Structures are given as C-alpha cells and as structure tokens.
Automatic annotation (TrEMBL):
It comes from Spirobacillus cienkowskii. PROSITE patterns: FPG_CAT, ZF_FPG_1, ZF_FPG_2. PANTHER family: FORMAMIDOPYRIMIDINE-DNA GLYCOSYLASE. One of its GO terms (biological process) is base-excision repair. Belongs to the FPG family. SUPFAM superfamilies: Glucocorticoid receptor-like (DNA-binding domain), N-terminal domain of MutM-like DNA repair proteins, S13-like H2TH domain. Its cofactor is Zn(2+). Its EC number is 3.2.2.23, 4.2.99.18. GO terms for molecular function: 8-oxo-7,8-dihydroguanine DNA N-glycosylase activity; class I DNA-(apurinic or apyrimidinic site) endonuclease activity; damaged DNA binding; zinc ion binding. Residues 234-270 form the FPG-type domain. Signal peptide: none annotated. Residues 2-114 form the Formamidopyrimidine-DNA glycosylase catalytic domain. This is Formamidopyrimidine-DNA glycosylase.
Length: 273
C-alpha cells in the first residue's frame, strides 16, 4: 500500500512534468473505484483550456488543482500514475488526463481501493500533523492529548486524524530507530523517547522519498522504476534476523496489532524499557 514517501514521489514527478500545462481532456474508463466518480464535476475541473496549477500531498492523498477546482486522490492499496505513451488503454487504467502539448498521465489501480473526490474546502481547513516536520511532531507528542492517552504508540502513529501519512512500514522503522516497542503505552513513554521519535520519523520518511519509496509488491514510480528503500529496511519483514543496532544481540520479532504486522528488536526495543 503506498504510504507518504510513495505518494510524495508521485507528487514530485507530476510537479516536474505536468504542472503548468494546459489541459485537453480527461477520460474515465469505468464508473467507479472505491466510490463512483463525480464525472460531471471532475470534467469541469479538468475541462479543455484549464491549467494544472498545483500538485501536492495531504497525508497519504495526492491533490491536483486546476483553475476550476481541486481533487483529492487516494491510491488505496495499489493505485499509481503512469505516463500515457499511446492511445491504447492498458489493463487497470481507469483515468486518463491529456494535455494540449500531447503529453498525459494515467491513473492505474488493479485492486480499485483508491478514489478521486472533489476537494472539500471545509475538510481542507482541518489540518493534521505533518510527519515531515519534527517540530510539529514534538508539539503533538508532548501534548496531554497524547502523553496521557491509554493506547499503544503505534496506534497513534497510524492514526491519520492525528498524523497525516505514516503507514505500517514507516511506523515500525521509526519506532526501531527510537528504540520504542510498538505496544508501549503512550503514558509510559519518556520525554527523551518522544524527542527521539520526533527526530526519527522525518529522517526515515525523507530518506525513503529520496530512495523512491518501498517497492514491496506492485509499487512503481511514475517512470516505472522500483523504489529502493526496501533494501534498507531495518525491521520490516526481517523476522528472526539479527538486530542491526550496534552492540545489540537481539533478534527481530513479529507480532500482530489490530490486524497489521509489527516488527521490533527483542532487546533494544524491550517493552519494559
């Protein structure tokens, strides 16, 4: 499932190649994804002669803005963008966006859990914490809202209403760097640990963005390349292997939290620390 680094990779690529271009047309090759397409409204936003003004990320969603409105796009489990190289519609290609200069991009989504929704101006004003900003994270972590919460730290990191964009891969990787067990109760985490976690999260995410994200299964960048961050995962998917922390003799263990796998070091992420 694409997480913040993968979505940011698409944002960066679309900004570089398409922002500023004049639109020619948008075509829908099916009626729905997770939800029905708002075809009439989307055709107005992407009408001929409009310009693609901006592309940016909000949490795990990608936003496309023209001079006639904005659309929020969730990639779901398998969504991605690809350049349109021919007039043929590929398998799983559900939306095609064309520009006057002859270029274009397609939205593909084999599992169809993604969606395209007209951006709600009221919802847009409801800001959540940006996990790329250490100062915002630390302010949130040290607030009574979090420090007094009787829940696990990983549940907090995965709560998109609090922090926008962290998914399973980057949650467990950041907790490993900060040496915090994923089941550790928020009320038991020290200020020192909160500060360490606030530093680790943007460091992990920024490195993942630079490396093109994690290609665990089907994920590819806009140009069709695999990401490479999966080659430097420290805990994700490393069940039974040795801990990579210096002077640690622990091994990586796997547990299930609310239906999702969590990995951690048995030694340096002990829940008693």
């Amino acid at each position: 499932m694409p997480e913040l680094p993968e979505v940011q990779g698409f944002v960066n690529a679309i900004k570089k190649s398409y922002v500023g271009l004049t639109l020619k047309n948008i075509k829908f090759h099916r009626e729905d994804l997770r939800y029905p397409f708002q075809v009439k409204e989307l055709k107005q936003i992407f009408a001929p002669g409009n310009r693609l003004l901006q592309c940016y990320r909000e949490g795990k969603q990608l936003v496309l803005e023209t001079n006639h409105g904005s659309v929020s796009i969730s990639l779901g489990m398998s969504g991605a963008f690809k350049p349109i190289l021919s007039i043929d519609v590929e398998k799983h290609q559900h939306v095609s966006v064309f520009f006057e200069n002859g270029e274009g991009f397609a939205y593909v989504d084999p599992r169809r859990f993604g969606f395209w929704k007209i951006k709600d101006k009221i919802a847009a004003a409801q800001k959540v914490c940006d996990p790329l900003q250490e100062s915002e994270l630390l302010e949130l972590f040290l607030s009574p809202l979090i420090r007094e919460k009787n829940t696990s730290i990983k549940d907090i990191l995965m709560d998109q209403k609090l922090i926008g964009g962290i998914g399973n891969i980057y949650a467990v990787e950041a907790l490993y760097i900060a040496k915090i067990h994923p089941l550790k109760n928020c009320a038991e985490i020290s200020v020192k640990q909160w500060k360490s976690l606030a530093r680790a999260i943007p460091e992990i995410l920024q490195l993942a963005i630079e490396m093109g994200g994690s290609s665990i299964s089907s994920y590819r960048t806009l140009n069709g390349d695999k990401g490479s961050f999966q080659h430097v995962h420290r805990v994700y998917g490393r069940t039974g292997l040795k801990c990579l922390q210096k002077n640690c003799s622990g091994t990586i263990e796997r547990i299930v939290q609310k239906g999702r796998s969590s990995w951690f070091c048995s030694e340096c992420q002990s829940n008693s620390k």
